[in-house]
Amino acid sequence: MATTSVAETNGRGMTREEKKVIFASSLGTVFEWYDFYLYGALVAFIGTAFFSDYPEATRNIFALLAFAAGFLVRPFGALVFGRIGDLVGRKYTFLVTILIMGLSTFLVGVLPGSASWGIIAPVILIILRLLQGLALGGEYGGAATYVAEHAPDNKRGYYTSWIQTTATLGLFLSLIVVLVVQNAVGKDAFAAWGWRIPFLLSCVLLAISVWIRLSLSESPAFKKMKEEGKGSKAPLSEAFGQWKNAKIALIALLGLTAGQAVVWYAGQFYSLFFLQSVLKVDGQSVNIMIAIALLIGSGFFVVFGWLSDKIGRKPIIMAGLALAILTYFPLFKALTHAANPALAQAEQTIRATVTAAPGDCTFQFNPVGTAKFNNSCDIATSFLSKSSVPYTIAEGPAGQPATVKVGDTTITSYDATAAGAGAAAKSAVFTHDMNLALQKAGFPLARDAAKVPDAKLDAFIAANPELGLNAATVRAGDKTVTPVADLVKAKLLTADQAGGATDMPVYTIANGGAFKMVADPAAINWPLTIAILTILVIYVTMVYGPIAAILVEMFPTRIRYTGMSLPYHIGNGWFGGLLPATVFAMSAAKGDIYYGLWYPIAIAAMTLVIGLIFVRETKGVDLNSIK
Known about the structure:
627 residues; alpha+beta; Growth Hormone, Chain: A; 4-stranded mixed beta sheet; 68% helix; disordered N terminus; Sugar transporter
């Protein structure tokens, strides 16, 4: 593309070549985010295929590796590909990143599970996930830099805002593809093999992206720098080894991307987690709600990018942070009332009290969901947290197991380590008694029907006296004679419990299954829930829409790719990526489902203060003049 003067570019509309640059860069980045999010959306199915055959300790190691690969490795990708991008060029670097991402995702779809390949299957999966994280670490900085260096100075916010839509659109695309495939093949087939289809589709997306990107030319700013011989010979050491540049990266991290990241993750990911795991709305409904909110709100990325060319990047980002700080608590409380009014009512009237010995309660930080808490207090508080029940911890006598009081009912917890082989039985009794107490207190718990083989009927009746069952009456009623082999396969019975029988009657006991906290579908206020989610998404667009433009404008051309990529991915990969686990751990420690919101609020407040003091407005700066 011919290089034109600033005066010529600032007054005209977008050229065909510039539209092509934005479209190609944005489309490829959408597909990269789509690939990255698929793992999170389908993690349960991936775990079944690759990790379920191994002991718990092994599964935990793999889960930790998968988590680290997805989020914590992204800054290393920023370093690797940022350096290459500043040495070789923007175009070829983000062509490499999309090839790595697309092929890695496709290979997940065809990779045999552990049942076929044994331990090598999860090892390869972790390697592929590592490659995905590295590729994503290099993709965003390349795409943002490439588009920014093609943009007129007075339209850079608008041009780069299209790149900012890609993460949200990638999430949206992954949710839609999963929902469509799931409905097309059915839940059972999807669990067995259909989950692979979204991964395989990435091959088509990859081919489209590579074909488009191959037709692009290098950015004008990079070509000008190369022609003048002003390129950096060591981008990493220049960007982060010299204080004048390292200071800019530190300000970019603490004064921009850290706060942007927690608002982004709170608005798009924690809201999803909160609805599904805390408010107990069914997963399909949550995906639809989030998808609608994203569809409504995503256009504001471009609106705020355009507005940043008029009034500046900094005022919009700082305003988004301030709004999040001031309104997160009322918004998430309103979300509870809209999505699960019965739970909101119960939380207002009932608060559990956990009485525990000194030192028995610990901080339950569990980023990969695999940690086991064995102390009696931790078992009690973990149960209450997962059940979305508010509680207070009171100090009790030393050496005694924790107790939980709900209304006028007191339940004694247990120490799993001390219980040894009897821990499973104690867990079943504790869980049953806790659920009964919560249901009695008014929390919205439901029980499905239970399938009970004849050999276990008497024990089942003894363990569930609240059902008022009589063994003789149940045995005289309806039953289904089922092969024992099928019962063993379904884990309803063990071979020893069958006692040599080949067939056995199975009774269906209404309201006798496992308890589960539920959000009544008929009571969900869909319009209000979607409206609140849309507000959260709009906050995301305020902090995220102008962020690419301001980051690009903070660094000189010779180290721009490297300099802007690292603070972005540390902010989003670490401050943002750890948000769901940190928020849940804080809420569990305090016994308040909203308490963890102090994490994004505190980080956003830190960024607001540092940003207001140290971040300079960059609107309209000439990229070639930055030293």
